[in-house]
């Protein structure tokens, strides 16, 4: 059965869960009293309760009162939580959304029941400012439920629907990728200090330059090399710098890092089973 918009239960209200809750309310997707937040240390949700969110430490109670269930605990906490909520899961009522790294739709259905519609979602930490790159996938959810999930996560950034077998790859490129691009910006700012700028100025310049580069691609819908060609002239300083970076493995090291992160991401849940 397809779900209509209804009460949303976010089980495990840490950074990602709270960022999504805030985004849903800010975008007027729903009101705070339409969202139930759970956390074992419920006192940490006192501020959210004052904002109008419903809070509880009882996951089963939250599931019983909701139609959309968002699983947002750590991988090692998942099996215990699934055992806790399984008795109150109704496959005709509930849409289950998981934002847990390395956990497949099949893993969740094995605990909750094969008929439960499950959508796997991978946001990144930019969800906290509404700029996440979120990938979604499912092996059994209907069109309307996929549209519901897309609309929900578009309140906190961009969404791409992919095949589930690519979700660990999406984790490496989009979730781990935040750290990779931040490290590149940090390195650029350090280079700026070495050529004469104060650290604070160098960081500001590197950050804005990186943001401008990303926006060029987003707004022009162009390829990176097309934009690179615009700033590389024969025997110029840009191509000299690019070639020096490539001689030292800039692109290959980034590619290798993404590949290794993808391998590691695929084992986060299985290692803890």
Automatic annotation (TrEMBL):
GO biological process: L-proline biosynthetic process
Subcellular location, principal: cytoplasm
UniProt keyword terms in alphabetical order: Amino-acid biosynthesis, Cytoplasm, NADP, Oxidoreductase, Proline biosynthesis
Reactions that this protein is recorded to catalyse: L-proline + NAD(+) = (S)-1-pyrroline-5-carboxylate + NADH + 2 H(+); L-proline + NADP(+) = (S)-1-pyrroline-5-carboxylate + NADPH + 2 H(+)
Binding site for NADP(+): 72-75
Biological function: Catalyzes the reduction of 1-pyrroline-5-carboxylate (PCA) to L-proline.
Name of this protein: Pyrroline-5-carboxylate reductase
Lineage: Bacteria, Pseudomonadati, Bacteroidota, Sphingobacteriia, Sphingobacteriales
Gene name of this polypeptide: proC
